[in-house]
Amino acid sequence: MPHSPEDKRRAVMRLRRIKGQVQALERAVEEGTDCSLLLQQIAALRGAANGLMAEVLDSHLRELFGTQKEDTPHAAVDPDVEIEALMKILRTYLK
Amino acid sequence: MPHSPEDKRRAVMRLRRIKGQVQALERAVEEGTDCSLLLQQIAALRGAANGLMAEVLDSHLRELFGTQKEDTPHAAVDPDVEIEALMKILRTYLK
Amino acid sequence: MPHSPEDKRRAVMRLRRIKGQVQALERAVEEGTDCSLLLQQIAALRGAANGLMAEVLDSHLRELFGTQKEDTPHAAVDPDVEIEALMKILRTYLK
Amino acid sequence: MPHSPEDKRRAVMRLRRIKGQVQALERAVEEGTDCSLLLQQIAALRGAANGLMAEVLDSHLRELFGTQKEDTPHAAVDPDVEIEALMKILRTYLK
Known about the structure:
Four copies of one chain form a homotetramer.
Chain A: H1 5-30, H2 35-65, H3 79-92
Helix pairs in contact in A: 1-2, 2-3
């Protein structure tokens, strides 16, 4: 997982963009680019890794604990709503 | 910059390792690896990006503000000592 | 929640320590303490806030999705094991 | 430091707001507030600690390396411009 073909495709797209960022950084270092620009690109790389983390974490929580057809385990709470609330908070740590 | 050939070489080595991590992640997603393992690998990728950030930041601060042969600008402080103290703190944000 | 009296007590203890750190910082700023020391104390404050986050997040996940006496919802996975694995990863973001 | 009375006053104001947040959290835990709300408040507390970090770090860099009346140490660069560029990047790590 990410299980759905759509989730998988999106994760792969993100990873290809990240690979492009890493390659651009490698060239930038080789060419002696100004540190200040490198730092910006590294911050963007971290942002992209965090975005990927948030997406895979979201899939993971939904797969593990999201509602499924038949069961509605802890009836008082809607797990999907809870996961959404949780991800909203965790995303503030993944910027 | 990183200016010295040695700094440059180390930054490039780090970037190659990071590219390897990204490629391994892409394969892992394609193969439907368990999310929990993907999350570990993404956390390691972020750690590597942070390590690179710390290293380039350190070079940048030394280049901008480190002692140079002739001048010793704000005589009361040793800029190298200050930069080292600063990086020690910033590294706690870059884990 | 944190629901159990023990969890609650620990969260309150952490918050009291954090309050102590904030008060010490306020005094330090008033007294004109060196920035470098202030930065260390602020990094420690952030560490303490992250530690609290990790603890409350752990309680929250267990309450929402942890095993309960009667039901074992998605039989293939042990939610407690999954939560532990997840928290292990999230803690790397909460240092 | 922060040296100027204005910087000091602002740091103290931030710390008082943070103390208020910590006290509100302590009450919230005592009253058994929902974890989801606690997590939001803890994320806000971390944000406030990061905001304080950014501010003190900015003061610190300016004090150590900012331009001063007489000297213009490494003539090719304007340290104030460099510090501003640096803080812009570091702030992305301090959200």
